[in-house]
Design goal:
The complex is a heterodimer of chains A (about 575) and B (about 400). Chain A contains 23 helices and 2 strands. With about 575 residues, chain A is mainly α. Chain A has a two-stranded antiparallel sheet. In chain A, strand 1 and strand 2 form a beta hairpin. The longest helix of chain A has about 35 residues. The radius of gyration of chain A is 26 Å and the shape is globular. By secondary structure, chain B is α+β, with helices and mostly antiparallel strands. In chain B, about 25% of the residues lie in helices and about 30% in strands. Chain B has 10 helices and 20 strands. In chain B, strands 6-7-8-3-9-10 form a 6-stranded mixed β-sheet, with helices on both faces. A 5-stranded antiparallel β-sheet of chain B has the order 13-12-11-14-20, with no helix packed on it. A 5-stranded antiparallel β-sheet of chain B has the order 15-19-16-17-18. In chain B, strand 4 and strand 5 form a beta hairpin. The radius of gyration of chain B is 26 Å and the shape is elongated. Classes of the chains: A mainly alpha (about 575), B alpha+beta (about 400). At the A-B interface, helix 20 and helix 21 of A face strand 1 and strand 4 of B.
Chain lengths: ~575, ~400
């Protein structure tokens, strides 16, 4: 058998024209992520081990940081506030999600829409609302029994408002994948309601609970808006970064705090990823959907709870709107539009509002193209495994990077005198670029999920019919994924409208933004105009959201003939 | 299939193909030739490598080592878009946002055909698959069987040299599947297109294929016509995988060809061809249930023994029941078989025939009988019967029987 003694030749697959094109595109988008994410982060890390003149000083800055109690206090404060927020938010969110999925209360759709309100406003806004409710001249400050809202109490309430929708989305998904057959089996075994809850319901959504907890924790510990407005003297890591950089111009120390803040964020993110991978394995396609049965007492309690939460959410907005329309709170409560005369305030005026709309539009437009193409190439590309894995890793990174940290990293990288891209600094372009990167991960995951749901053989069929990949991409992938593409667009638009953290470090004199104007007006004591601008952001985001809903519905109807639910 | 094909008759030549996924070897040194116009089935349990082999031929997952030649050209390293094949998947992979006609036209449109040419070709293809009126419907509006036909029309639209079918009928109802089996086969014959189909359904393979490639654990166990695969399984795996088989642990008592070889199982002695096995060797005897002949139902007289060779006209040459009665009159074991006395354990009704489980001194034998015969002899659990195992029905394999 001489033939079998010889080694069969190893095959080196020929790289076709399609493959080259795809690799080139992955390279371009990957390079984009490297330049706009990896390089700035590196610049920030390196700044934290250098002195003012750029000389390498090792860990000297860190030693100084940990030797300054005023700074290290913030670590404890941040952890404390984030932990309490997590406990409260997850409890409320779970109960709310439970009501929406496991009870027979009416108006479920309305309740669910109301819980999405906080997504449509900057995180500064709940802080402003709390000032009006519980501040020194607050409407109902007596309810605090003498405690001050400026500090951990205010931060926690604002963070609960801000993080609630994220937790509710996760828990609704988690609770709605329950398999009715498990419950039928439990009932057949005459298990008590409580025992069913403890042995079937809770284990069934444990990954959802863990995931929600980590998401809330990360959001709360990295958020900058709420502690900035309502934190008072209670320092947290996020406000420390801002103070070091904007207040004291101590960029090195800002970098050190950023690295410190990066650690819990990265940890929480990593754990969440591991947990989510398990959750997927839990899904069974043959599960029977659970239909809740009416139970008068339980349903009434659940309805009461949902109303309470909704009143809290709408109330916070209502207070802001009220404050914005009142002439001079609390002395002259007559209505007026004078707080909308932004042009006479310190903060950027109406132009900042229009800048925000432009910025959000560009971010949604370019961002969607970049994100969806990137996800497509990673998912459907052939070969080139190393490149695709690296890209996937880069795409996941932004989730773990707090906005302030990203913004600071942009100062260090793009404002560096030797950077040929320095001309971008302060421009609209850099605002768009940073915002796309800041919100890249969720958008990327949305695209990947949609692409994974498509038949993996479309590309194979396309290739066998000699159609180049971009033709199949244009004619099949994009039309089929259009709902997801619209979701990505609206996600990017709304976040671009409301974000403060990353852009606060990189906007320029001509590129002030509405959300930053809210911050600056609040800082200058113009709280009512800040509330007015915050509400402008809300109305804009809400109308775009509504438009998105109508377009999606129209699309769904028009393509009903071929969409299999 | 010509008995001695020259190498120029081979449309597809696969040489020394190996595919590894990390440490796992999915295909181990596979070589195979496919004739021009032939319909070949890759058959095997899930994970045997049959789909991997098909995807390597398509260039979708290119092999780690080894070569593939198609129509005389080496295509081993080419990406799918530079190969010449049409493919149909189990999921059909019809583009959901295009009508059936647009799906069929998808490949044609990119090829600089005039609009009128494309339209008439699509009409021709829809006629060919028997769906002339369904062109304007979206895939979601078609039944599974119709979708599969559209997928087939799309795959052959550009007249590829090779048609690849990846479990094309697995997602369909039993009835639709049986009908499409015939239609696909007829279409393939009419077009004369070289076709490779992957399936885990042996009935599908046996009815459709010119040749079957039985695979297991990344290697080819046997290549042969459906009759060869069924009647002369080359390995115990093939014997077990195709159809139903009785396996009996046995020992060779006497080496010899059909006339004088013999084995002994735990309960009885069988005559069979033992050439190639030495006396006292442990072997496994494989017997198809339908090959076992019912001699008699009623009181048993003599225990099983190696049948003598008084020829009384083989029971297998004509109807079984008549001959069984005849054999009873003769009170002998018919030609070249061993008569076995047994008790019916239970009768499993399977429609046109029944599977009768026999117990015989600790051994179990399954026997397939036409329903008429079961009724005639009034076989129920507990009936005493006399059965005969013809010597040509016994195939021997080295080693112990497979589990289960």
């Amino acid at each position: 058998m001489t033939e079998s003694a010889l080694r069969a030749p190893i095959v080196k697959p020929k790289v076709g024209r399609d493959d080259w094109t795809m690799r080139a595109f992955i390279g371009v988008i990957g390079l984009y992520l490297v330049i706009t994410l990896a390089f700035p982060l590196y610049a920030m890390m390196s700044k934290s081990v250098r002195d003012n003149d750029g000389a390498f000083v090792g860990l000297a800055n860190y030693i100084e940081y940990f030797a300054t109690p005023a700074l290290t206090w913030s670590i404890g404060n941040s952890l404390q506030v984030a932990t309490i927020t997590t406990l409260i938010t997850v409890t409320i969110a779970f109960t709310f999600a439970y009501a929406l999925t496991r009870s027979c209360i009416p108006l479920k759709g309305l309740f669910q829409s109301i819980t999405m309100i906080p997504i449509l406003v900057p995180s500064l806004l709940p802080g402003i609302a709390l000032v009006y409710l519980f501040g020194t001249q607050g409407l109902i400050k007596e309810l605090l029994f003498g405690y001050s809202i400026y500090g951990p109490i205010g931060i926690v309430i604002a963070e609960v408002f801000f993080t609630l929708p994220h937790a509710i989305i996760i828990l609704i998904t988690s609770l709605s994948i329950a398999d009715a057959r498990l419950y039928e089996a439990a009932v057949a075994l005459r298990t008590s309601r409580l025992r069913i809850f403890l042995t079937v319901t809770l284990p069934g959504c444990r990954y959802g609970l863990i995931s929600a907890a980590f998401v809330v924790f990360t959001l709360a510990i990295t958020d900058f808006g709420a502690p900035k407005v309502i934190g008072g003297d209670f320092n947290v890591l996020a406000t420390d970064i801002y103070k070091q950089v904007i207040g004291q111009q101590n960029f090195e120390m800002g970098a050190v705090v950023s690295v410190v803040l990066l650690i819990p964020a990265v940890l929480a993110f990593a754990i969440d990823r591991v947990v989510q991978r398990r959750q997927v394995a839990l899904l069974s396609s043959r599960a029977v959907t659970l239909e809740p049965r009416p139970n008068r007492g339980f349903d009434a309690a659940m309805l009461g709870f949902c109303v309470l939460v909704s009143v809290f959410l709408i109330g916070m907005l209502g207070v802001c709107q009220f404050a914005a329309l009142v002439k001079f709170y609390p002395y002259d409560l007559s209505l007026s539009l004078k707080n909308y005369n932004f042009d006479v305030m310190d903060g950027g005026g109406w132009s900042s509002y229009w800048n925000s709309i432009r910025m959000a539009t560009y971010t949604a437009g370019f961002g969607t193209v970049v994100v969806f193409s990137g996800a497509y190439l990673v998912e459907k590309g052939r070969g080139f495994r190393a490149g695709r894995t690296l890209f996937q890793l880069l795409a996941m990174m932004p989730m773990a990077v707090p906005g302030l940290v990203l913004g600071l990293a942009y100062i260090f990288f793009f404002n560096h005198p030797n950077n040929p891209l320095g001309f971008l600094y302060h421009t609209m372009a850099i605002l768009v670029i940073s915002t796309i990167v800041h919100f890249y991960t969720v958008a990327h995951l949305t695209a990947v999920t949609a692409l994974k749901q498509m038949d993996p053989e479309f590309e194979a069929v396309g290739a066998s019919l000699k159609a180049p990949f971009h033709r199949t991409f244009r004619r099949v992938t994009v039309p089929v994924c259009l709902p997801a593409i619209l979701d990505i667009m609206i996600y990017l638009f709304v976040n671009a409208m409301t974000t403060v953290s990353a852009v606060v470090f990189i906007y320029g004199p001509d590129t002030n933004l509405a959300s930053v104007a809210v911050l600056n007006m609040d800082d200058a004591g113009d709280i009512a105009p800040a509330a007015a601008m915050g509400m402008m952001i809300f109305y804009t985001a809400a109308s775009v959201r509504l438009a998105h809903f109508l377009v999606s519905r129209h699309l769904k109807r028009r393509t009903q003939a071929w969409r299999i639910r | 299939m010509p008995s001695n094909p020259s190498s120029s008759d081979f449309y597809l030549r696969i040489r020394r193909l190996t595919k590894k996924f990390g440490e796992f070897t999915a295909l181990a040194d596979i070589s195979l030739d496919v004739l021009d116009g032939e319909f070949v089935c890759f058959l095997g349990p899930s994970g045997c490598g049959k789909t991997t082999l098909l995807r390597a031929i398509a260039g979708l997952d290119i092999q780690t080592a080894g070569t593939i030649e198609q129509a005389g050209a080496d295509i081993s390293a080419l990406p799918p878009s530079e190969r010449d094949f049409g493919i149909v998947f189990q999921s059909y992979a019809l583009f959901p946002n295009m009508t059936a006609a647009r799906n069929v036209a998808y490949g044609l449109e990119s090829r600089r055909h005039s609009r009128e040419e494309v339209r008439s070709r699509v009409r021709e293809l829809l006629d060919l698959v028997g769906l002339p009126d369904q062109g304007d419907k979206y895939p979601a509006q078609l039944s599974g069987g119709q979708q599969q036909r559209i997928a087939l029309a799309r795959a052959i639209a550009m007249s590829p040299g090779l048609l690849l079918l990846d479990e094309p009928l697995s997602a369909l109802d039993a009835k639709v599947r049986a009908r499409l089996r015939l239609e696909v086969k007829a279409l393939q014959r009419r077009l004369g297109i070289t076709t490779i189909m992957v399936t885990h359904d042996q009935e599908e393979a046996l009815t459709m294929a010119d040749r079957i490639v039985v695979m297991n654990h990344g290697v080819i166990e046997q290549v042969g016509s459906p009759v060869e695969i069924y009647r002369e399984p080359a390995s115990m795996f093939v014997a077990d995988f195709i159809g139903t088989m009785n396996f009996l642990a046995a020992e060779v008592t006497q080496e010899g060809a059909a006339g004088d070889g013999g084995i002994r199982t735990g309960a009885f002695v069988l005559a069979c061809d033992t050439s190639g096995h030495s006396p006292r060797e442990r072997v496994t005897a494989a017997i198809r249930p339908e090959d076992i002949v019912l001699l008699d139902a009623g009181d048993s007289e003599t225990p099983g023994r190696v049948g003598d060779s008084r020829n009384t006209g083989g029971p297998r040459s004509t109807g079984r029941a008549e001959n069984a009665a005849e054999a009873r009159n003769a009170d002998i074991a018919p030609r070249g078989g061993a008569a076995v006395d047994a008790t019916v354990e239970y009768v499993e009704f399977l429609g046109a025939f029944a599977r009768v489980e026999l117990a015989c001194a600790g051994e179990r034998l399954r026997m397939d009988l036409p329903i008429a015969q079961v009724q005639r002899f009034d076989l129920t659990a507990g009936s005493a019967v006399r059965a005969m195992v013809p010597r040509e029905a016994v195939r021997l394999y080295a080693g112990a029987p497979p589990d289960g």
